[in-house]
What we know:
By secondary structure, the chain is α/β, with parallel strands linked by helices. It is built from 14 helices and 8 strands. The chain has an 8-stranded mixed sheet with strand order 3-2-1-4-5-6-7-8, with helices on both faces. Strand 2, helix 2 and strand 3 (46-47) form a beta-alpha-beta unit. It is globular and about 75 Å long. The relative contact order is 0.08.
Amino acid sequence: MQLAILGLGRMGGNMARRLLKAGHEVIGYNRTRQVTEALQKEAGLIAAFSFQEIVQKLKAPRVVWLMLPAGDATENTLQELTGLVSKGDIIVDGGNSNFRDTMRRAEMLAAKGIRMLDAGVSGGIWGLDEGYSLMIGGDQKIAEHLRPIFESLAPAPDKGWGRVGPSGAGHFVKMVHNGIEYGMMQSLAEGFEIMQAREDFGLDLHRVAEIWQHGSVVRSWLLDLAERALKDDPKLNNIADWVEDSGEGRWTVFEAINEDVPAPVITLALLQRLASRQETSFAGKMLAALRNQFGGHAIKKSR
Length: 303
């Protein structure tokens, strides 16, 4: 099957490689020309260096898959593509767009006769070899039309992918998936810190992770990744305790509040990521000052 991928970063590039290996014809574009040329040479990608060239090289009905950052990058690209593609063409947003934006965009495109699917994509850098989990939102007939692409990207033709609902549902499910991921990662991190703090036991945390990988009820892919990280750097001395967030955890917490659903674990996991970015905490200083004021408790002077 023929399609174009816009955005050949790490994820988009690996998706292109997997599709090419499966025999699909992939036209690729990246704003950095060298990235497109490198993938053309390495994997047999058909290179395009403008949106107009992509549209010219695709056969109708065209399939254009976006792997772009959420927000302006996706919005501006869609606006430009809308003036180039034709009625009946299909656009798939595989980035982490906010599902509310996706619903609005799908309605806008439908008014012009352009069909749209949203695809939540999970798998990270391992997707090239292991396959991707795909959460599809949009019309069932369009999803079925693109079945060969989804089957090639997924871990197996009948596993790891599926249509989950109408437009926006794919990105909504991916948002919640990432929120759950926040909570799972936080619990692993806290558990390993508790063990690391018990210095008299001299625990080998890498060995503990290895043991838990087999038979334990907490065994998981995230635990496998923890084991790899601890093997490479047992004390994690080469990693700063600064944790970024992609925005989907924030959206998940917002939706939980909006729907009156208590989600304390995901919420606290998000707040811990924010706390990790503070070199100094004014709130912590205020707490120490208050304890000193009402109880005369000792305080540590800043250096």
